Amino acid sequence: MGAALDAQVPVRTIFEASTVAGLALRVEAHAGTGGRLALVAQERPEVIPASLAQQRMWVINRIDPTSAAYNIPVAIRLSGLLDVAALGAAVRDVVDRHEVLHTKYPDTSAGPSQVIVPSREVIENISPIQVSEADVLSRVTEVATVGFDVTRTAPVRVALFELSPTEHVLVVVVHHISGDAFSIAPLTRDLVVAYSARVEGESPRWAPLPVQYADYSLWQRKVLGSENDPESVISRQLAYWSKELAGIPEQLALPTDRPRPARPSMRGGTVAFTLPSETVTRIGAVARDNNSTVFMVIHSALAVLLSRLSGATDIAVGTPVAGRGERVLDDLVGMFVNTLVLRTQIDPSSTFVELLTQAREKDLAAFGNADIPFERLVEAVGRERSSAYTPLFQVMLTFQNTAMGALQLPGLEVSALEDGYEQAKFDLQLTAVEQINEDGRPGEMQMYFTYASDLFSAETVELFAARFVRIVEAVTEDPSVALRSIDILTDDERHRSVPQHVKTVEDLPDLVAAAAEVAREAIALSHDGRHVTYGELFEKFAAVSKSMGAALKPEALVSVALAGLFPGILPALGVDGYAGTVETLIAESQSIAHSGSD
Questions:
Q1: What Cα–Cα distance (Å) separates residue 467 from each residue in 302, 489, 595?
Q2: pLDDT the model gives residue 30
Q3: Cβ pair 587, 560 in contact under 8 A
Q4: What's the pLDDT at 392?
Q5: What pLDDT is recorded for position 584?
Q6: Residues 465, 534 within the same domain
Q7: Among 264, 204, 228, 182, which Cα is nearest to 428's?
Q8: Same domain, 179 and 294
Q9: Residue 413: inside a domain
């Protein structure tokens, strides 16, 4: 729209117009005002700087070049008579077409730079490697999980496995510094064109790309301007984010099954679930009635879930933005994606509609300030990076509402191969995939919770998913429901929350013992950066209980001074096993002595 009108049309303009006619009137006011600087081929300096997004990937790679956390692997099974020579030539054609696929990133006095090397140095002859059906997944995983030193080599790897003369598996691995998830579509299209031409003995006949990634990185710096200029794009957006993220919590304390390691393994798992089409239809209705989007409804529901799980009211989640605002980038492979932080305040007494209104404003403002790289946000807020968790947010929300094109190669049946290796870059990531039926109506929405195996078990995340579904069902049936009134427990959870042999909820010793029996390593208490598991709590409780038992008479009144949560809760639990009444006193003043003597 902006390109057609030679104007910059703010995202908010689209939402402020409830009809096409109203949008036309609002957009007309921007027509002819001049869009952003046109993205065209740039004059190449001697040193081409890495783009701002690439700088983030470069720093992460320098911390651990052996890590495969930011590898993007694609494995496809090819059934039929494969022309291996044509496939090799086609892969080389595609790598040669996109400069970013034959670029390495050495350090310079000005920071990381892009050095474009001949494509033949990246991809040589592709020779099939003989493997058995039983071994192919492990061999694919081996290829996908080897890191890249991006300062020394172009971060692209290709392998071809032969299971039989008519069964092959092609593996392509690209580091995030040279590509993103949205790059898979142009990569796939180009491979189809190149292979189709090569099997006929011809070179691919495609239109040359108008720009390359290096052109984009040079153009990006011109558009954003200098931080020394208060009127520049980057200065204005920095001012917005500095204010928006001021005072943001360091971490979101979700209930984990295991303590957070100092250095995460990146091992992950996925829990898949579905929102039925009837629910998706109601989500759309809630979005339309409140001048918002399906994404905003899902974001609001996720914020409610995270608040209920953690007890926090200041909820921040991350979300990716494609970063391909210019039409000439549609067919380009490269690292364009950026990460935004969406922050909401949860008031339990407010309604879901009120939360949705807040999320709408927050989301629109965030997408309107989406040019500044995430790494710069971290610096602006003054947060030091930790190897243990992502700064600013630990939960990611991704939304996919565009169908991925199918890969069709002449004479071959093509299917995706799941290598079974899952990674988790965040504590938790919710991915929502919209589907449209043939009649144009909303279909089921496929949902996936990807979780860090260091922190969560699959059973715990399955409970998260069930609770999320209950929240979505509740708020779409009655959007005016108060947040505190949303019942997130399933009947099964409610039944299992109290062990059957426990007579009353006041029977704390039995509750602790029962919890330790079924979830010994789960976190029971978290306070001020300290954690105690149910197993540790039971052992300490038992020790206190044993020492108290001989000294206390049945039904005795006992006062326990709580000098902080962890020192005080153990005597309180231990005494509760014998005393009739436990009186807790907060030991913060001298009056505690008088209260105790009374």
A1: 10, 6, 43
A2: 59
A3: no
A4: 96
A5: 44
A6: no
A7: 264
A8: no
A9: no
